[in-house]
Amino acid sequence: MAKSPVPTTKVDNAGQVHLLVVEDDDAIAVPLVEGLERAGFTATRAATGAEALANRARADLVLLDLGLPDMDGTELCRRVRADSDVPIIIVSARGDETERVLGLELGADDYIVKPFGTRELIARVRAVVRRTTPAPEGERPQRLGSLEIDRRTRRVSVGGAEVALAPKEFDLLALLAEDAGAVVGRQQIMDEVWDPHWYGPTKTLDVHIASLRKKLASPGLIETVHSVGFRIRVEP
Ligand code: CA
Question: Is residue 126 in some structural domain?
């Protein structure tokens, strides 16, 4: 089996992405782990929230079932996100809009609804790995007034003070800042920051914009271009 060509934020010596598959149902977990390994990933399976917490440290990415026997998956997501920025893809039978938005607000990087195909899931995993891979060493942080965006370390500061952003918030800010002053359309943002297959509510985007404005303590920095998209205001 050829090694996965996927670039990663944190890889072992073999260059492989290690996944933590949190799923209590054997009928889903067993073929999923097999499929991931065939695709060149390595995977550890956790059947409970407690096992997931015990095994999370060595994961490069977490696939998280929301329905677990010992803990609600949303609570697990919160606890992992509280001290780690490891990418999380929520895997759940709960597919309605509220649950999707909730999952993303908890800091998940993507959301896939059961039943899903292994190929679709692997495509999502690769997309998330690609999006969460930092820029190469040597790239200088971007400065926009008092705002500084370091794509290499995925850190953002305002006036020298670091601002903690969720992964999606960082991706959104980095995309808007690529061509500061230019309008980035809502669909382009959904495609690039979320996923080309994402058909969820655009409320997700507005939630993230609102959160960014609040965290950056600069409500006017990201301008809404009505019914088109958003842009970063460029200081005169
Ligand atoms: Ca389950």
Answer: yes
Structure confidence by residue, pLDDT tens digits, 129-150: 867 766 666 778 999 989 999 9
Give buried/exposed letters for 137-170 (b at 16+ CB in 10 A, else e): eeeeeeebeebbbbbeebbbbbeeeebebbbbbb
Q: Which residues surround ligand 1, an ion (CB under 5 A)?
A: 24, 65, 67
For residue 67, the CA-to-ligand 1 centroid distance in Å is 4
pTM reported for the whole predicted model: 0.56
Distance (Å) from CA 91 to ligand 1 centroid? 9
103 sits in the region (left: phi over 0; alpha: psi -120 to 50; else beta) called: alpha
Whether the Cβ atoms of residue 56 and residue 86 lie closer than 8 Å to each other = yes
Q: The domain containing residue 226 runs over which residues?
A: 142-232
The chain-wide mean pLDDT, for the chain, equals 83
Q: Is 85 exposed, middle or buried (0-12, 13-18, 19+ CB in 10 A)?
A: middle
| Domain annotation covers residue 100 | yes
Domain boundary among 89, 113, 132: 132
3-state secondary structure of 147: strand
Give the count of domains, the chain: 2
Q: Does residue 162 form part of some domain? A: yes
Residue 51 alpha carbon to ligand 1 centre in Å: 14
Backbone angles phi, psi at 231, to 5 degrees: -145, 160
Q: Are residues 156 and 208 in the same domain?
A: yes
Q: Calculate the CA 31 to chain-centre distance.
A: 24
